[in-house]
Amino acid sequence: MSDKKRADVLEKIPSGIEGFDDITSGGFPRRRTTLLMGGPGCGKTVLALQMLVSGAMRGAPGIFVAFEENARRVAANGETFGWDMRELEKKQLFFVDACLRCDVVKSGAFDLTGLLAALEAVTRKMGTKVIVFDAIDVLLSLLDDPAAECRELYRLHEWLAAHELTGIFTTKVEDNKPATAQRYGFMPFMADCAVLLSQRVENRVAARMMRVLKYRGSSHVLNEVPFVIGPAGLEVGSTNGVHPEPQPLNERVSTGIERLDAMLSGGVYRGTNVLLTGSSGTGKSTLAGAFIAAACQRGERALFISFDENSGDIVRDLASISIDLAPHLASGLLRMVAIRTEAASSEEHFMRMKRLIAEQQPRCVAIDPLSALSRMGGELAARVVAERMIYLFRNAGITVLVTSLLEGIDPHLETTPMHISTIADSWIQITYALHDGERNRALSILKSRGSKHSNQLREMVFSDTGITLTDPYSAGGEVLMGALRIEKENAMRAEGERKRHEIEQKRRDVELIMTERDHRLEAAQRDLQNRSEEIGTLTRAEETSTDESTQRQDNVVRKRDGELLQEQAPRAKPGNDKPASVAVKKRGKSK
User: Number of helices (H) and strands (E), helices first, in the chain?
Assistant: First the structure.
């Protein structure tokens, strides 16, 4: 590539302004001109000075030429943003006070020859890279000739190009006219990059907006983007480069309520966002406090941002249900910030929250309620801010719980103007259940991406011991809560007690019958035993009697046989030598 072609390649200088480099795809053009236009108070001088200071900090010397405001005051204003102007002025910055006094009288023809000669001398001495011409329209007004104004401005433009300097011009425009219809409407055509700054009031809230009208040789965001002037300077709320990134984390994070974790299959995923919706007084802030307390108990840094409610009141209220945040505040593990919604626009609130996150470096964040942003700066702007905020948390791996106020007739639908439920990873809703003049809190999980979750409606109860989610209880096809549930449970207990008494009485009756039967059976057994014993006695008596009778008969027989033997003994035949007993036996057989 030839040297000429290299010179034609568009190079950019990082502005050092958060968000501006996003909408301009890298910063403002090097060795070319950038035009900043806007009405009073829109931040033209701050933007130009911040670009100059950012370059000086990176070693690119610059010159600031002030035509309207005193140069020393401009430098002093830079000190308020934390920039070390005195140190930079030693080598990197040079301020030229070209502010015209009110008693100056123009005599004869006027041109920029003398100014350019002086700037060229300083440029050579410092090795200047960037020059800011603040309120160039004030200088051109001295010419009082449109043709001369155009001629001198183009001369300045050519002088910058010849010396390979980057020029930044600021000029005033009227709010009701397009930039090209202004007195110096030719300037946007001359500049390589033209940025229009504006300040408007919506719903009694002032908001600053920025739009890149043109950028030769570079892509850029065409839409208006909001910006704020904060403690560190100008910050641009760019939507470019803020996109939801996939989170590979599978770690579960506790919500601070054990039963809610169980309903979510163990809690929510690390780095995701949880939307908690509900009507006023349903307990959204309390659940947010429980979530933060659980994070602190795990030893994680946390941030609690509350809109329109004092931090001390929140700590006191949570302590009433055994959620103590005071020790974590004292240790620095937790930081609580209360923000007044009406104090700034939604974009300014977003910028402040970004700074708080950068300072605290939390792992878990609670914002209560995020829907408060919709009251300031318009509903559309608040929705854009909410989406950017959620994407910012997601990309940083921060687990965030945001609450949103439900409004409308139907309490089961999110009618908050922000409508961020579509981008929420988990959506928990708290509603009021009204029955017979009693109001009870009911919690349900509407969605939880990538995780199984309960579809049951649980009653949520606050007590001195903490937050409790009761088991689901239904009767007659209806879920009962509060006094109705207590009455039904008491009735069921009473009915159960009655049935138990009835069963006990029947049991006692049966036991009595069985006892009586056992007694009768025992008596019958005793009678049977007595009868058996009597039969045995009779049997033995009969056997004894029989034996005695037999014995008597035997005795009689023996006695009789003995007498007979005695009578027959002398008459025995000779030679008969058998014993007498044998003879008796034979006689007995013959008998």
Answer: 17, 24
C-alpha closest to that of 349 among 366, 328, 372? 372
Q: Residues 6 or more apart from 422 whose CB is under 8 A from it?
A: none
Distances (CA, A) of 458 to 263, 351, 427, 441, 492: 10, 38, 15, 8, 20
Residue 252 in contact with residue 266, Cβ under 8 Å? yes
Domain pair 3-236 / 252-472, same fold: yes
CA distances from 40 to 170, 197, 403 (A): 11, 10, 38
Would you mind telling me the total number of residues written for the chain in this entry?
591
Residues 303-327 pLDDT 10s: 999 987 888 999 999 999 999 999 9
Identify the DSSP state of 263: H
Cα→Cα distances 244→139, 389, 390, 394, 505, Å:
48, 10, 8, 7, 69
Can you list the positions of beta strands (E) in 279-386?
302-307, 334-339, 364-368
Can you tell me which residue has the tokens 């010849």? Answer: 162
Q: Which of 246, 311, 235, 276 is nearest to 22 (CA)?
A: 235
Tokens of 191: 């500049």
Both tokens of 581, joined, read: 């007993």
Alpha carbon of residue 590 to chain centroid: 129
Are the beta carbons of 385 and 258 closer than 8 angstroms? no
What architecture does CATH give domain 252-472? 3-Layer(aba) Sandwich (3.40)
Instruction: State the virtual CA torsion across 549, 555, 557, 562 in degrees, nearest 10.
Output: -170
Strand pairing category for 130-134 and 166-172: parallel
Q: What is the pLDDT of residues 518-537, one digit of tens each?
A: 888 888 888 888 888 888 88
pLDDT of residue 460: 86
3-236 topology per CATH? Rossmann fold (3.40.50)
How far apart are alpha carbons 27 and 212 in whole angstroms? Answer: 12
Contact 51, 17 (CB under 8 A): yes
pLDDT tens for each residue of 212-235: 999 998 888 888 888 888 888 888
Residue with tokens 């039963």: 259
What is the residue extent of each domain of the chain? 3-236, 252-472
- Tokens standing for 580? 């007498």
pLDDT at 260: 92
Summarize pLDDT for 3-19 with one digit per residue, the tens: 444 445 688 999 888 78
Measured distance CA(375)–CA(182) in Å, rounded: 34
Tens-digit pLDDT profile for residues 392-440 = 888 888 999 999 887 654 545 555 556 777 788 899 988 887 766 677 8
Sheet of strand 166-172, all strands in order from the earlier edge strand to the far edge = 93-97, 62-66, 130-134, 166-172, 33-38, 193-202, 205-215, 225-230, 233-236
